[in-house]
Amino acid sequence: MSDxxxxxxxxxxxxxxxxxxxNGDPDAGNMPRVDPETGYGLVTDxxxxxxxxxxxxxxxxxxxxxxxYIKDGVPLNASDREGFAYAGIDxxxxxxxxDLKKAIKARKDAGVDVDHQVKEFMCQNFFDIRTFGAVMTTxxxxxxxxxxxxxxxxxxxxxxxxxxxPQEITITRVAITTEADAENKGTEMGRKYxxxxxxxxxxxxVSANLARTVTGFSEDDLELLWKAILNMFEHDHSAxxxxxxxxxxxxxxxxxxxGCAPAxxxxxxxxxxxxxxxxxxxxxxxxxxxxxxxxxPVGVHCTRMG
Length: 306
Description:
This protein is an alpha+beta fold. The chain has helices spanning 45-60, 76-86, 97-109, 114-125, 127-132, 179-184, 208-215, 219-230, 263-267; strands at 9-20, 24-25, 31-32, 40-43, 133-136, 147-150, 153-155, 158-163, 167-173, 188-206, 243-254, 270-274, 287-291, 300-304.
C-alpha cells in the first residue's frame, strides 16, 4: 500500500437524477427527500457513502485491504471478532462474551495494547473504515468493542440546485398475487415517486492529518475514492432510481497537510446556475457550471474530474 496522503482536499460532487427517486424518505412513504421549508431536494451522506462502498466492493471483490465493513448480510460482530483474533485472542470468533472479556483483560495485564491492535487490523483491512471511520461498539456488554475511529473523508448532505416537485405516478401490473385476486380483478395498482429532473450538489472533505494519525488512508485509497465517486451510480441502476449520473467532481488540493484556506472559500468559487430562459430544468445542459480559479487562495489547486 502506498504512503498516507500528505495534502488536505475539499471536493464538490455534482450529480443528477432523471425520472427517479434518488433517496426515498421512509418517514414520508419513501417519497424523495425534500427540505419542507424551501422545497429543495436532499440526499443524505449515508446514501452516498453506500454507493461508494458498493462500487469498491464490486470493483475490488474483497481484495486485501479493500474489504467493506458495513455491507449487506455480514454481521458486524463477525468482522469485530477478526480484529480480536489479530490481537492474539485466537479463539475470539467462537468464544462466549464473558470468556472473551477475560481474555482481553489477560492480554492487557500482559502489557499488550489490545485496543490499538484491534483498530490497526480494522483500518488495514477495511477500506470504508480507513476512509469514513466507524463506530464499532456493537457488543459492549461482552467487551467486544473495537472502539470508534474518526475517518479522514467526510461528506455533507447533497442539496438540489433548484427546488424539486416530486411526482406520484400510478402504475398497474398484470401479475396477480393470489388466486382469489385473479377471480376478481385483472390488474393491480401501485405507485412510485419520482423527481422529473434535479441536479444535486454535495460537498466533502479529506483530512490528511486524520489519515496520518488515525487510519492510514493512502494515496492509493484516495485514487480509489475518486474513482468510486465518479462511478457510484454506474453499477447501481434500477427502475426506482431512474437515470442517475455523476456529472462533475471538482477537487481542491492544498499544498500542506493542514490546508492553506478555509473550506468555505473554496466552495464559494464553484458556481452552478440555470442558463437564461430555462424555467424548468430537465437536463444537465440547462445549467452552467464554473469555477473561479482566479479567486483561489495561494497554495490551493483545482482539478475537475467529471
